[in-house]
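Customer escalation, tier 2.

The customer says the design service returned an amino acid string that "doesn't look like it belongs to this structure." They asked us to rerun it and document both sides in this ticket. The original structure tokens are below, unchanged.
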């Protein structure tokens, strides 16, 4: 399973890179806005693109397809690893198809049903991003869509990869890995929680205490 970071924060990206397990990054307008004090949109994005050895999703903000395509063409020029994040709307679907024809990869975002994911795959999206946390927030079982999409994509042999998004905690990662999702994109805080366990810390402490008793 590939691990992406869901952030536009360059120091978090560098820390995850240093761990040697970072496969890509996803951003959205909210995540970019959080970093506004660190530079312009272009400066922030260029730094991310050169730091990450893998796909980086950048989201368009136009609502109509011609605006989306225009933005996508500009964003795609920023680096070979740019993936264009497009919301799953009628205009978004048209955009996915047009960008596929131009050889530009897309990530269909704001996916809340399996049928939306099916349409994105048919339109040629390279990735679909079901938002599991936001579904859990409204008392639905978000991970069910990931499970369903896995079945649908297998049924029809779609090559579109599933990015589990809107991840809130390690259980989301655990469930996604059991389902066999291609990718999980997570906040840095969730990645840290995957590493830590109090019994690991306790074990190290005890080994170090006992080691002091050994004559060298
Ligand atoms: C997906 O790529 C989005 O950037 C993200 O996962 C949204 O997560 P949120 O629901 O925590 O904002």
């Amino acid at each position: 399973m590939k691990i992406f970071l869901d952030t536009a924060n360059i120091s978090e990206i560098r820390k995850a890179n240093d761990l040697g397990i970072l496969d890509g990054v996803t951003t959205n307008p909210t995540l970019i806005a959080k970093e506004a004090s660190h530079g312009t949109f272009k400066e922030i994005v260029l730094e991310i693109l050169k730091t990450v050895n893998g796909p980086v999703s950048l989201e368009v903000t136009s609502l109509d397809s011609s605006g989306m395509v225009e933005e996508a063409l500009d964003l795609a020029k920023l680096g070979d690893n740019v993936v264009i994040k497009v919301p799953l709307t009628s205009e978004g679907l048209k955009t996915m198809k047009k960008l596929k024809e131009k050889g530009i990869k897309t990530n269909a975002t704001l996916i809340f049903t399996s049928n939306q994911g099916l349409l994105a795959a048919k339109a040629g999206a390279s990735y679909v991003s079901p938002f599991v946390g936001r579904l859990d927030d409204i008392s639905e079982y978000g991970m069910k869509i990931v499970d369903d999409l896995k079945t649908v994509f297998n049924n029809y042999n779609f090559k579109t990869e599933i990015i589990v998004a809107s991840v809130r905690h390690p259980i989301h990662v655990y469930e996604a890995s059991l389902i066999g999702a291609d990718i999980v994109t997570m906040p840095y805080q969730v990645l840290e929680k995957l590493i830590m366990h109090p019994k690991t810390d306790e074990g190290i402490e005890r080994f170090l205490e006992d080691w002091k008793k050994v004559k060298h």
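Tier 2 assessment: The sequence is consistent with the input. The chain has one domain: 2-211. Residues 6, 26, 28, 109, 129, 131, 133-134, 165-166, 185 surround erythose-4-phosphate (CB under 6 Å). Sent an explanation to the customer and offered a walkthrough call.
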